[in-house]
């Protein structure tokens, strides 16, 4: 071999020493069409607002956002992910709404040693034994909001609850979470098809089961239709309906309207959390997009700020994965929810609040915080995570 | 499980079945008379739903929007037939499938450009927002009851048209033997356009009524088109009576499956397995029904061609 020296040269080129990147490439994959589009759009708009607040940069680097619409299909998501990883060579991926989609693409992302900062989906599969050094969830673990609601429903003395969730990983996490704190009887536990929009058959079963309360986890268009049909079936005043914040935020309120008043739900964030960064986020979001932000938007905003803080801490040297991971772990930014920290499995430890939908001082139907359900609450899987 | 619940689920099955019938009736006529596999039938349903939603917002009244959307969609359907599909009648089924599949893609992207990618979530007209007691003791949503009423009325009107009118006689003649009808001097060109327009209007009717129950969204036609094809296959190609029976069968099996399969499975399986298996089995119950019908009646329940 004549140019034996070429071998180390090529090898060194592949190893790619940690030089500061000149821009940061973000692969933003989310559900941007169909009945669940409002969720992905809110995460995207929240993320973009944070980038705007940082002067179009994250951690001082110009941002190159590659946006993909998974169309609510794991197959499409997989293709777009491969393109973002291989062709666009993104530094960080984020944006996914649904756990089944995240679980479909996560192996490729981790294999590629690319960081995934989750602004929403927090499946139990990635919180316990399957936790991963390249995965961070800035929002919550899937069970958490349901755990909070389970505790509230149990504390209120309901003894016979009917449960409805979609048949997919986060749906099962949801009902497991609820039942971790609600130990009473369940008169029904129904898993519906993911994306189902007509609930006539389920509502008739529900009525005949005569529960004293109903708990639903149905995000996006599923929840909008369920609640509309629940009200149209005359169940509204008869059996109280509870849900996590996902089934009771601005996207659902906009579509359902009056019928949402009086619904209790849980969240780690709300518009009325009083800190300077949240006030600025809420005001500017409404000004820029002409609607009130949801918890999804707040999560998108926080995801961008987390990336911003970590890129800044490593002075733009995002190729140094260990340093970048250590920086992400610190969560050294001012979250709109207030203080939180990452647990050893890279999921948040934080407070969860009880919210009530009612008219605010401007006459709008919206959420307000009426109590704290958990203080510094961690997820149930962290013990199994060896990282 | 009591009789009241069974009755209520029966109404739900009836409502879903009648909506499927509106789609399947047009599909089976076009397939039976013109021998055209029209995959774009679902796109007409989507266009009808979007038009109804937009017109309802513009005029402020569901009742004005409904007939307007039907007329507009019928016009679009007839223009499509006269301008494009007419050329496909002599081609083989593969060309028809390719061409009408292309129409689906074009329609989806056109709708995305005009209305945007997000779904429209509509509300039922205020007059029908409440409940009525069809079965004493079980309040039933008024809007669903309205859908059942309209579906039954359309079925009766179609039956009358096909059995009692001259147009119906031509349709039956075309469905049972097209060449013979042609040889007898039937103006098939006009007949085909009329039938296609009628199918499109029924699509729009279904789209407008299902809009507030489901969601008006891109791709809404494809999911329901598969079920409409199942109905056509079960009922027998070209037969409106078959479409009605097939649609009601599919509606009932789907609803009863969703409602009672998980409960039945819980009787003899652990809950966790029953909960996972129930929705899956319910989702395929319709296809099991189709396979069973095809096993015993390979041409469907009421084949138009004897």
Tell me what you see in this structure.
The complex is a heterodimer of chains A (387) and B (306). Chain A is of the alpha/beta class and 387 residues long. Chain A has 2 domains: 10-140 and 273-342, Rossmann fold (3-Layer(aba) Sandwich); 144-267 and 352-383, 3-Layer(aba) Sandwich (Rossmann fold), CATH 3.40.50.2300. Chain A has 12 helices and 14 strands. In chain A, strands 7, 8, 9, 10, 11, 12, 13 and 14 form an 8-stranded mixed beta sheet that branches. In chain A, strands 2-3-1-4-5-6 form a 6-stranded mixed beta sheet, sandwiched between helices. In chain A, helix 2 crosses helix 10, helix 2 (37-53) packs across helix 11 and helix 5 packs parallel to helix 6. The longest helix of chain A has 19 residues, at 295-313. Chain A is globular, with a radius of gyration of 21 Å. Chain B has helices at 3-34, 41-59, 62-83, 93-115, 142-164, 166-176, 178-183, 188-210, 220-235, 240-268, 271-296, and strands at residues 131-135, 138-141. Chain B starts with a helix and ends in a 10-residue tail after the last helix. The mean pLDDT of chain B is 89. Chain B has 306 residues and is an all-alpha fold. Chain B has 11 helices and 2 strands; from the N terminus they run ααααββααααααα. In chain B, strand 1 and strand 2 form a beta hairpin. Chain B has a domain at 10-218. A two-stranded antiparallel ribbon of chain B has the order 1-2. The longest helix of chain B has 32 residues, at 3-34. Classes of the chains: A alpha/beta (387), B mainly alpha (306). Chain A binds chain B through residues 32-35, 37-38, 41, 69, 167, 189-193, 197-198, 200-202, 204-205, 207-208, 221, 224-225, 228-229, 232-234, 255, 257, and chain B through 2, 4-5, 8-9, 12, 15-16, 112, 117-119, 121, 123-124, 129-131, 138-144, 213-215, 217-219, 255-256, 258-259, 262-263, 271, 275-276, 278-280, 283.
């Amino acid at each position: 071999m004549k140019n034996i020296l070429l071998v180390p040269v090529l090898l060194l080129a592949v190893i790619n020493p940690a030089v500061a990147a000149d821009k940061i490439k973000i692969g933003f994959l989310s559900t941007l069409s169909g009945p669940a589009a409002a969720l992905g759009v809110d995460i995207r708009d929240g993320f973009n607002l944070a980038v705007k607040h940082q002067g179009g940069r994250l951690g001082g680097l110009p941002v190159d956002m590659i946006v993909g619409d998974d169309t609510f299909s794991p197959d499409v998501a997989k293709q777009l992910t491969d393109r973002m990883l291989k062709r666009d060579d993104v530094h960080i991926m984020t944006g996914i709404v649904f756990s089944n989609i995240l679980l479909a693409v996560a192996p490729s992302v981790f294999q590629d040693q690319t960081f995934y900062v989750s602004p929403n989906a927090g499946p139990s599969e990635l919180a316990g034994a399957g936790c991963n050094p390249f995965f961070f969830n800035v929002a919550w673990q899937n069970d958490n909001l349901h755990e909070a609601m389970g505790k509230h429903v149990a504390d209120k003395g309901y003894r016979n609850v009917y449960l409805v969730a979609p048949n997919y990983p986060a749906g099962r996490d949801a009902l497991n979470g609820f039942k971790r704190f609600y130990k009473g009887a369940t008169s029904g536990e129904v898993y519906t098809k993911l994306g189902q929009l007509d609930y006539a058959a389920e509502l008739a079963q529900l009525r005949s089961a005569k529960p004293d309360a109903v708990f639903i986890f149905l995000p996006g268009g599923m929840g909008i239709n369920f609640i509309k049909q629940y009200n149209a079936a005359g169940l509204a005043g008869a059996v109280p309906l509870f849900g996590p914040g996902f089934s009771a935020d601005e996207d659902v309120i906009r579509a359902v309207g009056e019928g949402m008043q009086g619904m209790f739900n849980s969240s780690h964030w709300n518009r009325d959390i009083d800190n300077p960064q949240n006030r600025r986020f809420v005001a500017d979001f409404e000004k820029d997009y002409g609607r009130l932000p949801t918890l999804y938007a707040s999560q998108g905003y926080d995801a961008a700020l987390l990336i911003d803080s970590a890129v800044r801490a490593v002075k733009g040297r995002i190729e140094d994965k260990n340093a970048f991971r250590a920086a992400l772990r610190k969560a050294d930014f001012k979250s709109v929810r207030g203080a939180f920290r990452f647990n050893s499995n890279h999921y948040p430890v934080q407070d969860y609040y009880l919210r009530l939908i009612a008219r605010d001082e401007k006459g709008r139907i919206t959420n307000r915080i009426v109590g704290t359900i958990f203080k510094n609450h961690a997820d149930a899987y962290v013990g199994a995570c060896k990282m | 499980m009591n009789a009241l619940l069974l009755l209520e689920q029966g109404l739900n099955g009836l409502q879903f079945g009648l909506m499927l019938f509106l789609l399947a009736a047009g599909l089976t006529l076009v397939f039976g008379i013109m021998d055209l596999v029209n995959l774009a039938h679902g796109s007409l349903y989507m266009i009808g739903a979007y038009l109804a939603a937009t017109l309802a917002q513009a005029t402020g009244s569901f009742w004005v929007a409904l007939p307007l959307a039907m007329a507009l969609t019928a016009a679009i359907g007839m223009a499509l037939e006269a301008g494009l599909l007419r050329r496909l009648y002599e081609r083989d089924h593969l060309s028809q499938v390719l061409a009408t599949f292309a129409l689906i893609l074009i329609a989806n992207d056109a709708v995305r450009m005009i209305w945007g990618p997000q779904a429209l979530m509509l509300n039922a007209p205020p007059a029908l927002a409440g409940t009525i007691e069809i079965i004493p003791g079980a309040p039933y949503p008024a809007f669903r009851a309205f859908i059942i009423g309209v579906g039954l009325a359309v079925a009766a009107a179609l039956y009358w048209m096909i059995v009692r009118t001259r147009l119906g006689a031509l349709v039956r003649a075309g469905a049972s033997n097209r060449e013979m009808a042609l040889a007898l001097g039937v103006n098939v060109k006009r007949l085909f356009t009329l039938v296609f327009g009628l199918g499109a209007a029924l699509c729009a009717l279904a789209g407008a009524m299902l809009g507030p129950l489901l969601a008006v969204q891109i791709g809404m036609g494809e999911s329901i088109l598969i079920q409409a094809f199942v109905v056509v296959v079960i009922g027998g190609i070209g037969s409106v009576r078959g479409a009605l029976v097939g649609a009601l069968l599919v509606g009932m099996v789907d609803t009863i499956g969703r409602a009672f399969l998980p409960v039945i499975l819980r009787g003899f399986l652990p809950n966790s397995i029953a909960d996972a298996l129930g929705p899956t089995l319910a989702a395929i119950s319709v296809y099991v029904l189709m396979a069973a019908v095809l096993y015993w009646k390979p041409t469907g329940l009421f084949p138009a061609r004897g």
